[in-house]
Specification:
Elements lengths: L11 H25 L17 H50 L2 H13 L5 H14 L2 E7 L3 H4 L2 H8 L6 E7 L6 H11 L5 E3 L23 H4 L5 H15 L3 E6 L6 H9 L17 E4 L4 E5 L4 E2 L5 H7 L9 H13 L3 H8 L7 H12 L10 H13 L5 E2 L14 H8 L4 H14 L9 E2 L8 E2 L33 H23 L40
Helix pairs in contact: 2-18, 9-17, 11-12, 12-15
Amino acid sequence: SELKKASKRLTCHKRYKIQKKIREHHRKVRKEAKKRGRKKPKKDPGVPSAAPFKEELLREAEQRKQRLEELKQKQKLQRQKEHEKRRKLETKKNAAKTKEKAEGKESSSKSKAKTKKMLDKNSKESFCRELKKVIEASDVVLEVLDARDPMGCRCPQLEQAVTCSGGNKKLLLVLNKIDLVPKENLEKWLNYLKKEFPTVAFKSATLMKDKTMEQFTKRPARVDLSRTTEYFGSKCLLKLLQEHGRTQNKPIQVGVVGFPNVGKSSIINSLKGVRACNVGLTRGVTKSMQIVHIDKQTKMLDSPSLIADPSNSALALALRSVIDTEESNSADVLEGADTILNHCSKQQVMMRYCIPDFRNTEEFLSLLAQKRGMLKKGGVPDIENIAKVLLCDWTGAKISYHSQPPESQSPPPYLTDDKIAEMQEGFNLKHLEEGNNATVQALKYPSPSSSIIFQSAGMTNGVIEENKVIEEASEWENMETSKEGEEEEKEDFTESDDDDQDDVEEEEKDVTEYCSTCIGFTNQFSFLSSEKEHSDSLSVSLDKTADEDDAYDFNTDYV
């Protein structure tokens, strides 16, 4: 059965009420019009019969009229021509688009290839190129490791490239974020790593003041400044580098390399004492080599992140790959969160996040989203965004977790005893150990019970050679690819209707003024001025009723 239209019938009470309102409104309008007074437009008397040169004046007025009509015709023709040109341009553009689609957009692929070379600052190839520059330019290379998973932050390809490069190039390990692991675990890792490379314990500052930033007197935010602004190990590291520089009798360049979010730029900022490099939770903030002068004898070279090889385990890719969590695929983010949770103790994760027992990762993420208030429309947990938050927590300096060093010391094949001795040569290892002990004693550490036990996946393979990088459709890129090739420049036409109308009005005004001045030649006649006075037209806005039952039109007078 079809739906019938709503009836427009009204109750008598409602209809009479509406009619009464209309009468009151009309009465009000008439009253206001009466107060203002209605002025009838004055008729133009024209040129009087007794006026001198009447025929000439009339002839001139006629000529002006003709000129006005000609001008209007010209403007009309011009507008038509412009419309035709526009139509032709549109047809050409549409034809070109269809042609491009038919040919498979060959021109667009060529332009993309050109723009890729120009706009590859965010590409993996660019990262490898810049990293290679840093390694080649450095006298000492600092490989930054996250103290929570030092073995997972080591890259065998990088270490082999530095140790086998020759030219007296040295490699130092910097164990950063030492305040996030228990003290006993830190000491174990220092003892393990120093047998292979000289290792420095470091705690970088995550919040540094910018030189150019003005000091505003605002209410201070609730931030634990003891953790964010203090840094430890900088004196020990600087002293070690300066002593090495003296043995070389020349200024040295120190390259800082490592996987994403290990704290490369934060270490440089801590050594400099001010915010010299940009830092952030987003992976891949540093995109090119940056030179920071620490003193006359020491230059620091900040580098982009190491690229993790796609053949690595899912855990290594989740924690070490240069993926922007804000733009990455939801499947990758969920897989990363799943692998992290599978490598941890379930009980400790529940205690850390204050969450009840869960069966799988999806249930854990939904519980965490509900706890933190990350809900979609209708109260549905936002699992994708909470997974991104989880990844940021584990790569940033928020979650305290630790992994155990291997039970047996087995150096990689490229690290022979001669190479280990060569890497340690030129450094004062006694002063280094004293500095590390001072740093370890100065810090406050989490208790072993509050730190999550984590199973490391071992060393992470990285890609250093540019030609080995296979460019994928990577979702971490911040820049959008350039638009398709240069289109034909279309002529800018602007509608000149308003300007033309102004010209016409000026011409008409000139005609009337000319006539009125001629009338003023004769003092015998007193005529009214020829300028037209238009009375203000009465504009009444009549609102419609907004009743739910019916829509009533007030323009109709029910009397």
